[in-house]
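Dear colleagues,

As part of the handover before I leave the project, I'm documenting each prediction I ran so the next person doesn't have to rerun anything. This entry is a single chain, and its sequence is reproduced below.
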Amino acid sequence: MDDVVSWMESKLSGKELKDALVRTIDMDRISSGIQGFDELVEGGLIKDRVYLVSGSSGSGKTIFSMQFIHNGITQFKENGVYVTFEETPEQLRRDMSGLRWELRPLEEAGKLALIDATSARVGLGSKEKFVIPRPVTLDSILFEIYKTIQRVGAKRVVIDCLDAMELQAKSPEDFRTSLLKLISILKSFNCTSFLVIEAPEKKISRHGVSEFVSDGIICLYYVLEDDRRVRKIEVLKMRGTDHSSRIVPFQIGKNGIAVLSESELEKTMRKVGVGAKS
């Protein structure tokens, strides 16, 4: 483990850190496979970059992120790693089976790895194949992510959620350094990644650091309109590409998330007599 930690630290020294965070990469795009979403980002996300997925409780962050991973494996032959800090992998499997996403066969085929970061955080043992060991430290988290990406040849990664990872930090500076190490690891393996974060009221994140080091910010909302709650999505920031400036409704159905497309939104707005701008 010490060798890997030393490797990570060397990646973060001087010019290498700057290159890892702002290096020029090809503007190749990947499809999320999420109905209606790619239209908001000029046809797809720029690959090999790190995106922040921010939202309040109930907004659909986990479903959105797992759909990105599941579609990558089943539609685009891109293996995935999902790090879960707030529910066990078994809970995640049960929840996703309700959307007809059977994760176990993908794991058994070596295409998907679910890293259990929940059990060790609460002092429990785990029978999972991929586990953050006790005692939980930021270095042990990074080490397990590094090993697992390498083992499954992952091209899509989700960290769910960053807030729980922050709790393992000794200080804000410690968390910032580890976050930069994490991004360096993800980019060194050419992974397209989501960092999931819980959004407090009127903020994107609690600490602000992740907003500045990420390549894009996707915000999910669960808001009260009249007498019911509705879910909406906004692409707040995207480096290197244009994106829609609209806050667009989406639904969670039996096959996952479906975002109302730009053309569908325009038709809806015309029906109610509201002008539409992109």
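The first helix runs from residue 2 to 11. The first strand starts at residue 29 and ends at 30.

All the best with the project,
I.
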